[in-house]
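User: Sequence recovery, please. Input:
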């Protein structure tokens, strides 16, 4: 889009069709009104038999995540040396930062993507250029097959950042169909992955399940998202109690600056590196005994 741009949000369109001959064939547009405060734009359009007005908002572009140089300066030494970590959804956002932290600490991340192949390869390239190692593999957590894990190899830890779009246009406080979608990701998909990892691990695999502070303080428009995350927390507790070979660590994360949280206005969001750095240390420390045992067996 030329105007208002790539990160715009559609608001409305009022158009009239004119079948009279001799009109302008090329479709033209002109900005008739703009508000810097609300980042709103009104655009008059005319041509090809129609006239009207388009209303849109220029959403702020997603925040770029920390580069490898910045991450490396925050990770002291090589605390994750010898460890392999599976990062589900590692092509951008929280998964991207997690993969970079692990690589900066001497570990080997295996990042997955569903559609963003180019972004995943860019993350891997940045890690390799900084002297680290990384693998990339395509995976959709909604796929019930588990054979793809055969190509991943043995991992000591796993981070689960698969998600549907969190902020969506809604017509009611609660919409059951949206809850079903979120549960597919945060409960069903997570359960299948954990089961498959437990079957393939000879020791204990440490797994991070991100929950949300929206469970503590409700956020408008996120009822189904919060409900599904609550179900995921309950599942994590049951996995810890009844699934040998797994240690699930769950933390309720605040709003973090990613493409999921980019808004039209200004909303407070924490830095992903600040939030995730202590979590990665905790998860990798939990995975350390299993990694040492694995090396001793080999």
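Assistant: Recovered sequence (298 residues):
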């Amino acid at each position: 889009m030329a105007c208002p741009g790539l990160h715009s949000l559609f608001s409305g369109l009022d158009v009239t069709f004119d079948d009279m001959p001799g009109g302008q064939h090329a479709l033209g547009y002109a900005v008739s009104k703009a508000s810097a405060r609300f980042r709103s734009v009104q655009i008059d359009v005319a041509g090809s038999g129609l006239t009207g007005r388009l209303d849109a908002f220029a959403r702020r572009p997603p925040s770029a995540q920390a580069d490898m140089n910045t991450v490396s300066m925050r990770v002291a030494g090589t605390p994750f040396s010898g460890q392999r970590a599976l990062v589900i959804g590692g092509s951008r956002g929280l998964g991207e930062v997690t993969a970079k932290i692990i690589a900066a600490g001497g570990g080997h991340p295996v990042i997955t993507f569903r559609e963003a192949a180019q972004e995943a390869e860019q993350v891997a390239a940045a890690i390799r250029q900084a002297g680290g190692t990384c693998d990339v593999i395509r995976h959709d957590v909604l796929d019930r097959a588990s054979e793809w894990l055969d190509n991943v190899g043995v991992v000591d830890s796993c981070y689960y950042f698969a998600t549907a779009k969190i902020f969506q246009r809604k017509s009611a406080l609660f919409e059951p169909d949206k809850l079903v979608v979120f549960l597919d990701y945060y409960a069903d998909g997570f359960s299948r992955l954990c089961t498959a990892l437990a079957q393939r691990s000879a020791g204990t695999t440490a797994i991070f399940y991100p929950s949300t502070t929206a469970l503590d303080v409700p956020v408008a428009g996120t009822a189904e998202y919060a409900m599904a995350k609550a179900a995921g927390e309950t599942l994590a507790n049951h996995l810890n109690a009844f699934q040998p070979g797994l240690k699930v660590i769950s933390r309720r994360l605040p709003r973090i600056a990613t493409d999921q949280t980019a808004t039209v206005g200004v909303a407070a969001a924490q830095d992903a590196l600040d939030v995730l750095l202590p979590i990665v240390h905790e998860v990798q420390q939990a995975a350390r005994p299993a990694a040492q045992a694995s090396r001793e067996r080999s």
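The helical segments are 68-74, 93-104, 117-129, 176-200, 223-242, 272-297.
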